[in-house]
């Protein structure tokens, strides 16, 4: 089979089946995606680095395995994947989309990369992001913008805009992202893809470049719910190199997704988050959300409204805790051991301290500097209790809100993002308007609970809308079942996947 | 009174070791004052009786077996160094004036 065009549109699970049935080889899959990348990148620009040689070598190694060895591997074995450039890859340049790390080739692999390699999943390359994952549009990348495949004049969301755009544009069937305040889910919503933030500690953070350590979580990006579940099972589970990693095996998320595909939600209690709907949400977003809620009811779910009264303080708490942790984590970029070094001008003493100050001035972009300064303030003597201390207390109140909500319902739902994809430059001049993009995604990071976004259709502006499910801590499977059920019900209604309405000129002419 | 004056931003830039430009000092103080107004309200609900949360999924600390592993080689550890010499990182002058 050599029809690259239809091959790349398959789900990752289906690609895995065809590999096991020997209808295709991993090498053919990798080559097909590299062809799409070559054709799509001039317009989409999802990647910072394409690791074609590495991917081909890994594919050939999988293809050379015995049937017995292949049978012992996960279902996604041999299926290629793209990696957000916030995750370190041994021998492949890793930059976090920052000038300060430009050219850095890590001497080690993140735990999730080791697990992908053990599963024989070829690495296609590193995807674009807002610098150090700080932003909601990927416009803060030091290198270039990424364009939304649905409308190239609009942002793909952020910070993981590259991973979401690559999967939406069929440049990769799967990707990894990192989610600190919505950086997997919000780009998922804006590009019509699936994005999952697992329970905090459910996936190892070893080798994820640290942004805000008490909020960061690696997770899957895909086009279907089952594909994300299968990927979470490959990367999840305990890792002794991450002291916040939960010492338990990965949750049974793939089984839950398969159960959901049957479309029966009888007995499931769903909570609509009162504070995350209506005012502030674009009417087209709210309309698609309401229709999806109706579908959940049709499948037998009981839907009630639930209030989480402290959510109005979530954004404030987040914008204190996150920059505080950023200012601490990014102190390591000091021009000494790796990355950029800029010496001071001649009239300034040539000391180590001045070298650091000029290196960090030259190497960090404006959003990163803004957050480091804010975090330095929040952590400094005299302000710590009022700012950081208060934010940590709000975090407790939000966790208690979630606990009370989950005494009443099994799973919570809201729109993922208040708007559909916006135009380039629309929000870069006003940081606060950019921050409001994450109003619905931030609470899950503060509470450490798992959450995911799936496509809920197109708004009246023709752009994708995301539907968010939130489950209790360490119960990730609870959200996968209704997510898979809703996906099936919506696709029956649309008579196909959401992307059948997306124009993909980069796929035309691929098979000539 | 705004939280962030120019002097405050210069002081914070110094603490954070970032040689901010004049233009950046102006823009950051303006932007941070807008941000401060909207995040200050966390203090309204942070009562004395509310305990703080540092880790949303608290785990008990535990020990693991002390098994030796091979660390990075000296060559690997130095591979990304901006300046190196004789197997060591080279740093600019750290102490006092000459």
Count of distinct strands of chain B: 2
Tally the structural domains of chain A. Answer: 1
Oligomer: heterodimer
Structural class of chain B: mainly alpha
Any idea what the CATH architecture of chain A is?
Answer: Alpha-Beta Complex
The profile of the biggest β sheet of chain A is:
11 strands, mixed
Supply database-style keywords.
A: 512 residues; Amidase signature (AS) enzymes; 11-stranded mixed β-sheet; 18 helices; B: mainly alpha; two-stranded antiparallel sheet; 4 helices; 2 strands; 38% helix; flat; Aspartyl/glutamyl-tRNA(Asn/Gln) amidotransferase subunit C (chain B); asparaginyl-tRNA synthase (glutamine-hydrolyzing) activity (chain B); protein biosynthesis (chain B)
In short:
The complex is a heterodimer of chains A (512) and B (98). Chain A is an alpha/beta fold and 512 residues long.
What does this structure look like?
The complex is a heterodimer of chains A (512) and B (98). Chain A has 18 helices and eleven strands. The longest helix of chain A is centred in the C-terminal third of the chain and has 24 residues. In chain A, 62% of the residues are buried. Chain B has 98 residues and is mainly alpha-helical. In chain B, β1 and β2 form a beta hairpin. In chain B, α1 packs across α2. Chain B is flat. The two termini of chain B are 43 Å apart. The model of chain B has no long low-confidence stretch (mean pLDDT 90). The interface between A and B is large, with 75 and 57 residues.
């Amino acid at each position: 089979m050599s029809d690259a065009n239809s091959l790349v549109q398959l789900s990752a699970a289906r690609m895995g089946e065809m590999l096991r049935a020997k209808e295709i080889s991993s090498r053919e899959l990798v080559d097909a995606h590299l062809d799409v990348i070559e054709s799509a990148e001039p317009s989409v620009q999802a990647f910072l680095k394409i690791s074609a040689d590495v991917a081909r070598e890994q594919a050939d190694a999988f293809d050379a395995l015995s049937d017995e060895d292949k049978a012992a591997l996960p279902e996604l074995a041999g299926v290629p994947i793209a990696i957000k450039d916030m995750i370190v890859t041994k021998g492949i340049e890793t930059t976090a989309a920052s000038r300060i790390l430009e050219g850095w080739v890590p001497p080690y692999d993140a735990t999730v990369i080791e697990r992908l390699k053990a599963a024989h999943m070829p690495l296609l390359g590193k995807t674009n992001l807002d610098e150090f994952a700080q932003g909601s549009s990927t416009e803060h990348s030091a290198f270039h913008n990424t364009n939304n495949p649905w409308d190239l004049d609009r942002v793909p969301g952020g910070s993981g805009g590259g991973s979401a755009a690559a999967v939406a544009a069929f440049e990769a069937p799967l990707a990894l992202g990192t989610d600190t305040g919505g950086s997997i889910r919000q780009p998922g919503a804006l590009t019509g893809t699936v994005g999952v933030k697992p329970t905090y500690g459910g996936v190892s953070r070893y080798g994820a470049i640290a942004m805000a350590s008490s909020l960061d979580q690696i997770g899957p990006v895909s086009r279907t719910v089952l594909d994300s579940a299968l990927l979470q099972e490959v990367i999840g589970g305990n890792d002794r190199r991450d002291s916040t990693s939960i010492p338990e095996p990965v949750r049974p998320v793939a089984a839950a997704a398969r159960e959901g595909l049957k479309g029966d939600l009888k007995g499931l209690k769903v909570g609509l988050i009162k504070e995350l709907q209506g005012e502030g949400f674009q009417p087209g977003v709210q309309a698609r959300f309401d229709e999806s809620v109706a579908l959940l009811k049709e499948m037998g779910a009981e839907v009630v409204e639930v209030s989480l009264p402290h959510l109005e303080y979530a954004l404030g708490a987040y914008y204190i805790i996150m920059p505080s942790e950023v200012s601490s984590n990014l102190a390591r970029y000091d021009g000494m051991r790796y990355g950029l070094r800029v010496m001071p001008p001649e009239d300034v003493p040539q000391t180590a301290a001045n070298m650091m100050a000029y290196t960090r001035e030259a190497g960090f972009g404006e959003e990163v500097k803004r957050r480091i300064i804010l975090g330095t303030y929040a952590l400094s003597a005299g302000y710590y209790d009022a700012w950081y201390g208060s934010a940590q207390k709000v975090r407790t109140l939000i966790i208690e809100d979630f606990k009370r909500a989950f005494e009443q319902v099994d799973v919570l739902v809201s729109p993922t993002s208040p708007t559909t994809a916006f135009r380039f430059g629309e929000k870069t001049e006003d940081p606060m308007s950019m921050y409001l993009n994450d109003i619905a995604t931030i609470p899950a990071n503060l509470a450490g609970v798992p959450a995911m976004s799936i496509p809920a259709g197109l708004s009246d502006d023709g752009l994708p809308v995301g539907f968010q499910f939130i489950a209790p801590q360490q119960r990730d499977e609870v959200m996968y079942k209704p997510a898979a059920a809703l996906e099936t019900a919506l696709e029956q209604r649309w008579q196909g996947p959401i992307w059948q309405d997306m124009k993909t000129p980069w796929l035309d002419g691929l098979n000539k | 009174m705004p939280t962030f004056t120019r002097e405050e931003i210069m002081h914070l830039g110094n603490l954070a070791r970032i040689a901010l430009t004049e233009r950046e000092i102006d823009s950051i103080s303006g932007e941070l004052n807008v941000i401060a107004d909207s995040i200050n309200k966390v203090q309204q609900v942070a009562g004395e009786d509310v305990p703080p949360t540092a880790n949303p999924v608290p785990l008990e600390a535990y020990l693991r077996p002390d098994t030796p592993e091979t660390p990075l080689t000296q060559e690997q550890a130095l591979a990304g160094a901006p300046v190196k010499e004789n197997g060591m990182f080279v740093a600019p002058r750290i102490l006092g004036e000459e």
